[in-house]
Amino acid sequence: MGAFAADVQRVTVLGAGSWGTAFAKVLGDAGRDVTMWARRESVAEEIRGQHTNSAYLPGARLPERVTATSDAAAALEGAQAVVLGVPSQSLRANLTGWRSLLPREAILVSLAKGVELGTLKRMSEVIAELAEVPPEEIVVVSGPNLAREIAVGQPAAAVVACAEHDRAQAVQRATSNQYFRPYTNTDVVGCELGGACKNVIALSCGMAAGMGLGANTMATLITRGLAEMARLGAKLGADPLTFAGMAGLGDLVATCSSPLSRNRTFGERLGRGETLAQAQAAAGGQVAEGVASCSSIRELAQRVGADMPITEAMHRVCHEGLDPRQAGAELLGRSPKHEWR
Ligand SMILES: NC(=O)c1ccc[n+]([C@@H]2O[C@H](COP(=O)([O-])OP(=O)(O)OC[C@H]3O[C@@H](n4cnc5c(N)ncnc54)[C@H](O)[C@@H]3O)[C@@H](O)[C@H]2O)c1
Ligand SMILES: O=P(O)(O)OC[C@H](O)CO
C-alpha cells in the first residue's frame, strides 16, 4: 500500500476565481471538506454565507461543506492537500507569501496552466522551488475543464498527474464524483506542457474565428498545434502519448472550440481587428494565460530547439504588433515539409 492510501479529507483551495471555485465544488461533491482562500473578504463572505461566488461563477451553487476565508493562515490550518488555484504568472508572488504556512505533510496540487516568464519554469517547478519539496511530489490537474461547465455539473474528465503515482491516486479519489472523472498519469512534464501550450493554440483558433474562418482552419490549427506541443514535449522528456490524452488533445479541443474560453475569446477579438489593449480591457480582469505563455513557451522552444511556428506567430501578434492576417499568410507560406519529420 502506498503512503497515501488513506483518504485526503481536508482540502484548502488557494484562489477563489473561476477554476478554484469550480474545483472546490468538485471536491465538495466528492465528499471532501474544503476551505477556500479568497483575496477579497466580500467573496469569502458570500461563499461562506450564501454558497455562491457571483463574481466568478454566476449560477453555480457550492456544497455546504465548502467554506471560505480571506485569511490564508486560517485557510491552511490542518490541510491534508493544498490546491493552488491562482494564475500562472502570479503563482510565485502568491506562494512566496504562503510558503511558511503550508502544512508539512500536505499534498500540493497545481491547477495553473502556464510557463513562467523569465525562469521558463513549469508551475510544478515553481511550486517545488518555493515550497522546498522534491518536484516529484507535486500533483498537477489538467484537462478539458472549462470552469463554468463543471460548476453546473456538466460531465467532464481530467488528468491528475504526479511522478509519485500514489499521490495522484489520492487526489483522484478526492475529486471523483458523479460528473467529474479524473484519470491518473505520471507524466507531469507532458501534462503541464499540454495545458500551457493549448492556451496559445486557442488564441490562434480565436483569431481565425474572428477573421470569419471555418472548421477546416480550426482543425488545421488544432492538429498542427498538437504536433508542435508534442515536439516541445519530446525535447523535454514528455511521453508522446500524453498529448493524445486529456491534457493534450482533450484540452485543445475544448479550449479551441468553446466561446467560454478566455484565450479563444481574446484571440477572436484580435482577429476582428481589436488591439491588444482593447482585447485586454474587454476581458475585464480575466486572464488569458496564452498571452504571456506564448512568449515563455517560444523562448523554451528556442532553448531546446523545438520548431513551434504557431506559438512563434502568436508571440509576434501579441507582442510585436504583427497583423493576424499576415501571421496566417506567413504560416501558410512556410516551406513545404513532411507531416511528421
Ligand atoms: N477558468 C477555467 O476554466 C480554468 C480551467 C482549468 C484551469 N484553469 C487554470 O487555473 C488557473 C486559475 O485560473 P482561474 O480561471 O481560476 O482565474 P481567475 O482569474 O478566475 O481567478 C484567479 C484567482 O486568483 C486570485 N489572485 C491572486 N493573486 C492574483 C494576481 N496577482 N492576479 C490575478 N489573480 C490573482 C484572484 O483573486 C482569483 O481568486 C489558471 O492558470 C488557469 O489557466 C482555469
Ligand atoms: O478560459 P481558458 O481559455 O483559460 O481555458 C480554461 C481551461 O483551461 C479549459 O480547460
From TrEMBL:
InterPro entries: 6-PGluconate_DH-like_C_sf, 6PGD_dom2, G3P_DH_NAD-dep, G3P_DH_NAD-dep_C, G3P_DH_NAD-dep_N, NAD(P)-bd_dom_sf. Residues 11-166 form the Glycerol-3-phosphate dehydrogenase NAD-dependent N-terminal domain. NAD(+) binds at G15, A16, G17, S18, W19, G20, A147, R262. It is found in: Cytoplasm. The active site is at K198. Its EC number is 1.1.1.94. GO terms for molecular function: glycerol-3-phosphate dehydrogenase (NAD+) activity; glycerol-3-phosphate dehydrogenase (NADP+) activity; NAD binding. GO terms for cellular component: cytosol. Its main location: cytoplasm. This is Glycerol-3-phosphate dehydrogenase [NAD(P)+].
